Protein 1
Amino acid sequence: PVPGLGPAPAAGPLGSAGRRGRRMQRSLGWIHVALGCYAMTGWLQPLVMDAIRLSSLEASSSLPPPEPQLEALGVHDGDDWVSYGPVASGSGSHSAHPLPSMLPMLCNAVGMASVGLLTGISESSRSRVGQPCVSRVTQGTALQSLLRLAAVDFISGGLVVLGQLHVPSSLFVVLYASCTIWTAVIAQVWLKQRLSLARWCAIAAIALGLCGDALTAEIGTPQNGSRAGVLLVLAGAFLHSYTICLAERTIRLLPTVSSIEACSFMGAIEASILAFYEITHVLLDAPMPFPPSNVLVLYPLLTFFQAVHAASFFYILGNFGSVTTGVLKGLQMVVVFLASDVLFCSADESDCVTASKFACVVLVVLGLLTYSWADPQRRGVTSAGDGSDVSASSATVMMAKASIETEKRGHSSGTSSWEHVSERCHGSDERGCGEVSGRTARGGGVLGGGGGELEL
C-alpha cells in the first residue's frame, strides 16, 4: 500500500487490462478533441480569408484609384492583396504594375512546415531508420522527388489562394468541392478506374450545383469577386487532385521518409520562397500598406488554424472513414455558407444567402454525401481528392493519406503485420507503436481499392 493513497492496484492480467482500458479511453478522448479541432479550423479558414479580403477593401478605400492600365489588367480600387510596385514607362516617368501579395499562402506554408513540430518529429523519428530526419529528406532521390512535389503543390496553392482572395467564402467552398469531380476524371482517364453508377450520379449532382452557384453569383466587381477568381479556384482544385496521385507515388518511392517529415520539408521550402518574395518584391516596394488588422490579427490566425488543422488530421488519421469525412465536408460547406451570411452580408452582398444559392449548396452537399456513402470499402480516412482541406496546402493532407496507403501495401505484400509494425516503431515509444499497429491491423486503405479510388 502507498501511504495516503490506499492499497496499490492489483498486479497481473486484470491490472494490465485496466491500464490498457484507461489508455484507450484517454486516446479516444483525444481523438474526439482532434476531430473537433479539425472540423472547427476547417470552418474558420475560409471565413478568415473572407475577413482578409473585406478588410483589405475597407482599408484601401481612401487610396487613389489605380491607373487605367491597371484597370485593364483587372486590378480594381480596393484590391489590397495586389501591391503596386514602380516600373519605368516608355516616356521615362514611373507608373505602377500589379504585384500579387501572397501573404495568405505564406501563412499556409508556415502552418504546413510546423506540422512536424506539432505532431512530434523528434528523437523518436530520428532513430526510426538510424539517421537524422534532415539527412533522410535531403538525399539525392528523396530531394528531387520532394522538390518536384513541392513545385506542383506550390502552383496549386498559389492558384487557390489568388482565386480565394477574389471570390467570397460562400462561393469558394462550393467551387473547391470540384476536387471530387477532378479526381473522378483522373481516375477514369489516367488510372483507368471504373466508377459506380451511384458515384457518377453524385458527380453529376455536384457539377450541377457548381454550375448553378457560379451562374447565380453576381461576380464581376471587386466586392462580389471576379470570373478570373472562379477559374483560378477551379484550376487550383484540379492541380490539388493531381497532387494526390503524385504524393502517393512519391511516398511509396521514399520508404525511409515519413509523410510528416516530407510535409514539413515541403512547407519549409515553400515558406522560404514566399518569404523571400514578400520581402524583396512586395513589402519593400509597395507604397500601399497592408491593413494593421491583417498583419497583427488575421494572418497569425490563419497560420495558427492551418497548423492546427494539419496536425489534428495526422492525429485522427486512420480512425474515421470516408462517410465521416463526407459528412464533415458537407457540414463545413453549410457552416461557412451560413456564417458568411451572418458575418459579412452587410459588407459584401455576394455573401448573402439567396434561395438559388441555398438550393445549389444543398445539391452539392447531397452529391458529396452520396459520393462518400457509395464507397464500396468504407475504410481509410477519405477518398482521394475529396478536397476536405479548404486551405491551400493540399500536400499536408494528401501525403498523410499516401503514408497510410503505404502501410496497407506493406501489409498486403506478404510482410506480416507484426514485422511491419516492428519496423515502423523501431525506436519509438509504446504509444506510437500502438497507433501504428492499430492502423496496420485495420488495413488502413485510403487511396487504393475500387469504386474510383486512386491506386497507382
Protein 2
Amino acid sequence: ISGDYTQTKNELNAIRRKLKDAEANQEDPIIEEFRKQKDELDKQLLRIEEHIDSLNREIGELTNEKTQKGKCIEELSKKLKVSQDNKRKDEVITQNIANLKTVITQFKAKKKASLESQILTGLKQLMHKKSFIKNVEVDIIGDDIDIILKNGRNDVIRKEALSKGEQQMYATALLRGLVEESDIRFPVFIDSPMQKFDEQHAENIVKYFYPNISDQVVIFPLINKELTAQEYSILQKHISRTVLIQNVHEDKSDFLPVEPDQFLKTYNKLYSNAD
C-alpha cells in the first residue's frame, strides 16, 4: 500500500507539472485528458489515504490487543510459577509428613519397649516372687494401652486373678513406669500407701518406689498402720518435710509442721492416748 501510494503521488506530481506548463492553452484536448487523469488520481490518493488511516487504526487496536495479551501471558506465567512452587511445597510437605509418621512409629515402638522394661523391672524390685511375672507386653491401640503380664510358660496372667497386694504392686510398678517414660517430673500424691501390702512388700515399696517415683512425692499414711517406725526409718533420709494433721476439736484440724527426725516422737506424744 505504501508503494502504491508513493507511485500514485509521483504520477500526480508529474501531471501537475505538465498542467502547469500547459495552463495557457486550456482548450487543448491533451490538457483536458491530463485534468481527468489528475482528478482520478486525486480520488485514488484520497481512497489510499483513507485506507492507510483505517489500517493505522487497526494497527493501533491490534497493538493494544497485543499489549493486553502480553499482560495476560505474564499474569498466567506468574500463576503457573506459583502453582509449580506450591506443587513443590506440597511434595516437600507430603514427604515430611511421611518422615514424621515414620519417626512417630519408631518412637512409639521405642517407648513401648522401654515401658515394658520399666514395668517388669519395677515388678521384680517390688515383688518377692521374682519369677512369678517373667514378661510384660505393652499393646498400644490408638490412644489406648493394654498391659499384658506373662509367666515363665508364656501364659497370660489375668490381673483380676492377682491378690490385692499383687494388684497394688502391679499398679505401683505401672505408675513408676509411666512416670519414668513421661520425662515430666510432676509431683506424685499417695494416699493410704501400704494398707494391702505385707511386711516384705511394704519394705520394697519404701526402699525402691517412694525415693525414685518422682522428684516430689507426698504421702498420706496412717502412722503405725500404713507406715511403721521401721519403714519410716528406711525412708527418713529421703524426707525433706513432715506435717502432722492435728485434731483441735471435732470440727477443726490444723497442720502442724514437724522436723523429720521428730515426726514419730511428736505423733506418739500427741496421740499416745488416742486408743
Protein 3
Amino acid sequence: MQDIGTMDDTLPYTAYDTLQASFMIVGILIMVVIILPWVLLAIAPLVVMFVLLRRYFLPASRDIKRLEGIARSPIYSNFSSVLQGLSIIRSFGAGEQKLKDFYAQLNMHSRMWFCFLATQRWLGFRLDFLCCVLITVAGYACIPLRDTLGSGIVGLMLSYVLQLQGVFQWAVRQRYARAIAV
C-alpha cells in the first residue's frame, strides 16, 4: 500500500518534470532544424537509435529492479525477526550464524543494486553519445554556412544543443523512473 501512496505523491511531480524537459528538448530540436534544416537528416537516425535503446533498456531495467526488490525483502524480514528473537539468538549463541546470513543477504542485494546502477550508466553513456553525435553534426553543419549564418545565431544554437545532453538524459530518466518502479 505504501508503494501506491508513494506513486500518488511523486507521480504529479515526475509528470511535470518529464513534460518540462520534453518541451525543452522539442524546442531545442525545432530551433536547430529552423537554423539548419539539413540537421533533420541526422536527427531521424538518432531518433531511431533512441527507440532501439529504449526497447532494449526498459525490459532489462524493469527486471533488474524487480530482482533488486526481491533481494531487498529478506533483509528487512531478517532484521525484524532478529530484533524479535534477539534474546533467543543470544541464549543459543547463534549470533555469528545470523550475522553470516545477514551478510549473505546484503551481498545479494548489493549485487542487484550494482546491476541496476550499471544499466542506468549503460543507458546514460549511450544517450550522451547520441547527443554528442547531434552536437558534432550541428557544429560541422555550420561550417559551410559560415557566410550566411550570423555568429550570434550559431552561438545560440550551439549553446542550446550543448544543454540538450543533460536535459535529454534527465528527461529519459524521469520518464522511465515510474515505469521501472511499477
Protein 4
Amino acid sequence: MICPECKSEYQDGIEICVECGVSLVFNLPVDKPLKEISWIKLGPVSGNIFAEMIADILSQNKIPHYLKADFLTSALGIQTGNMIGSRVFVFVPEEFQEKTNKIIEDISGN
C-alpha cells in the first residue's frame, strides 16, 4: 500500500497514511511525460542582485525560469554585491520570452 500524497509505503492491512491521513492505494498512477520545453536565453543582466530581482518578479508572475551566472561569479559564490563584469543569464520557456523581456525592460528602465 502506498500513500498517493507523500509516497510512503505501508504493509498490507493498513488503509490510512499516518503522515497525511489520506486513503492508501495499491499502485500510484503513472506520471505523464513532461512536454518538451524550448528554453530561451535572455540577457546578460548585470550581476546577481539584478538577476534575483528579475527572478522574484518572474516567480510572482508564475513564469518558469532559471538563472545561470558566468563561471567566475558562480565559482566565487558572490551573492552580496555585483562584481565588475559579472553577468547572469535568464532562461525562460519560449512562450514567455516577450513577457519576460518587458519585465526586464521595466526594471532596467531601458
